[in-house]
Amino acid sequence: MIALAGCRLDVAVDMVVEPDGTGTISVVATADPELVAAVPTIADELATDDIVAAGWVVTGPTATPDGGLTVTLTHNFFSDAEATNLLNSLGPPFNQMSMTRNTSGEDTTTRLSGLLGLSNGFESFADDDLIAAVGSVPFADQIAANGATPESSLGVVIRTTLPGEIDETETNGTELDDGRLEWTVPMDGTILDWRALSTQSPGDDRWWARPLSVVALVALVAWVAFMVLFIGYVAWARWQRSHRPRPRPRPPGPAR
């Protein structure tokens, strides 16, 4: 489909990493109106069975206001290893993707690394088995005839939200106003290193802990002071009672 002249497919990948290392990866693919017009059955012919079987939640295809179509894929992850597997399952232009988390002392770091780009152009989408089965790169003749290129047909970005403080010396993404990091994937055959590092300190996601501890300490001191006063009062009251003079019994009167 992307080999059709004048058509464009835009893909946005968003990964959100929570402070505990879990998170969500979502992929939004948007076909422009020209692509939908060229392939009007695209919505009906979109095959997602394998994607669903792999655990992705598929939303759409949904029509856009300008006549295009959008499809959203979402998958949760519960460890850095699972996030790594999901990122690599996306395939080109996402290559050798990795997310790792390490804890040293009280600090936890989240590191992202990978290679972004299509080093062999459209051929990057076909592996050796597919080329052997088809006999050549799929749609090679149509691509050559239409003059389509990855730059003219594809737009890909990846964005991440990381917990903690971003290390700018180890990060080459652009920080957006909402705190996300964004990388535009090159489509001209060059490869971009995907790098990011964040560090979580113990108080980064527990800003409420210190005020709460102060309130708890004040309450504890107040409770201890009250108990000391209460016990002292009880002891003083008992002492007073034990030292209070007792009335003498009256002698018995004369018998009548």
Can you offer a commentary on this structure?
The chain has two domains: 9-200, no CATH class; 208-243. Helix content is 30%, strand content 31%. It has eight helices and eleven strands. Strand 5 (94-104) and strand 6 (107-116) form a beta hairpin. The strands form two sheets. Strands 3-4-2-1-7-10-9 form a seven-stranded mixed β-sheet. It has a four-stranded antiparallel β-sheet with strand order 5-6-11-8. It has 256 residues and is an alpha+beta fold. The chain has helices at 33-38, 42-45, 49-53, 80-89, 128-134, 140-146, 150-153, 209-242; strands spanning 9-17, 23-31, 57-63, 69-77, 94-104, 107-116, 154-161, 165-166, 174-175, 181-184, 192-200.
Q: What can be said about the biggest beta sheet?
A: 7 strands, mixed
The secondary structure category is alpha+beta
Element-level helix/strand string: EEHHHEEHEEHHHEEEEEH
Gap between N and C termini: 129 Å
Helix content: 25-40%
Q: Work out the strand percent.
A: 25-35%
What is the overall number of helices?
8
Number of strands: 11
Query: What's the mean pLDDT score?
Result: 78
Rounded to the nearest angstrom, the radius of gyration is 34 Å
Query: What's the shape?
Result: elongated
Domain module count? 2
Q: If strands are numbered along the chain, what order do they take across the biggest sheet? A: 3-4-2-1-7-10-9
Note poorly predicted spans: none
